Amino acid sequence: MQTSEQQSSSRPRIGIPVRLSGSETADPRVREANELFDFIVDLVRDAGAEPVLLDASFTDEAGPLAAELRSLNGVLLPGGGDLDPRLYGEEATEACYDVNPDQDRLDLAVARGSLDAGLPTLGICRGHQLLNVVYGGTLIQDMHPSLVEHNALTPAEGGLSAWAWHDVELSPDSKVAGLYGSRNSVRIASGHHQAVARVGDGLVVTAVAQDGTVEALEDPQRWVASVQWHPEASQLPAEERLAPFKAFVEVCRTLRPVG
């Protein structure tokens, strides 16, 4: 029988940059992002990995971050507030919220460091948009209404988003389809007011909504993928909620063996 120390050492280590905006803010979207972050950490642990929280001390890609990344088996980039539009060559509009330079600095350092280290990398919501910007793409700062609802306006009980639910078609044999057991489509929990505009160089689109919104991206040359939706949404059935995290942990275990 393995000891707890042996079991811990056999678990892939998944780096996750922490959220830096405090939940005491009056903006419920920030509190929600922080709770969703906690969900992701729990799901990574339940999926068989060891979550490694990366804080603002890991912003020097040549120093402590590089050393920490060498000990990881993968990186997960979670949701949160809006990226500073100056990162993709634009000035911010009034629609942008929770633009946090320290968060941008941390997330960009982790994302770039992960790519440089060749680590399997998965982006969720903001993480999806972040990866697109890292690859040289741009974002829609505030989406116009369309035939698909992407952001429910009525908060659910307890403050969490009621979500906008819709289906997306997944490209066959894509990395994201693999996270869902090679399914052709998935019903998603959507809650975003920004989206990918110009796709970054080297990325391919592997899922779109009916209105053309880019819902998933991947790098065909390495294991880098991202989704605009929230697989961690608590309203999803427990097994369906855990499945993509288990699949990502297995990717990390296979591509970056433990030990």
Keywords:
Class_I_gatase-like; Peptidase_C26; two-stranded antiparallel sheet; PuuD-like; disordered N terminus; nine-stranded mixed beta sheet; hydrolase; single chain; alpha/beta; globular; 259 residues; Gamma-glutamyl-gamma-aminobutyrate hydrolase family protein
Show the helix and strand layout.
Blueprint: H1 4-9, E1 13-17, H2 28-46, E2 50-54, H3 64-69, E3 74-77, H4 101-117, E4 121-124, H5 126-134, E5 139-140, E6 164-170, H6 175-179, E7 185-190, E8 195-196, E9 204-208, E10 214-219, E11 224-227, H7 238-255
Parallel strand pairs: 1-2, 1-3, 3-4, 4-11
Antiparallel strand pairs: 5-8, 6-7, 6-9, 9-10, 10-11
Helix pairs in contact: 4-5
What do you see in this structure?
- The protein has helices spanning 4-9, 28-46, 64-69, 101-117, 126-134, 175-179, 238-255, and strands spanning 13-17, 50-54, 74-77, 121-124, 139-140, 164-170, 185-190, 195-196, 204-208, 214-219, 224-227.
- Strand 1 (13-17), helix 2 and strand 2 form a beta-alpha-beta unit.
- It is built from seven helices and eleven strands.
- With 259 residues, it is an alpha/beta fold.
- Helix 4 (101-117) packs across helix 5 (126-134).
- The model is unreliable at 1-7 (pLDDT under 50).
- The strands form two sheets. A nine-stranded mixed β-sheet has the order 2-1-3-4-11-10-9-6-7, with helices on both faces. A two-stranded antiparallel ribbon has the order 5-8.
- Residues 1-26 are annotated as: Disordered.
- Keywords: Hydrolase.
- It holds the Pfam family Peptidase_C26.
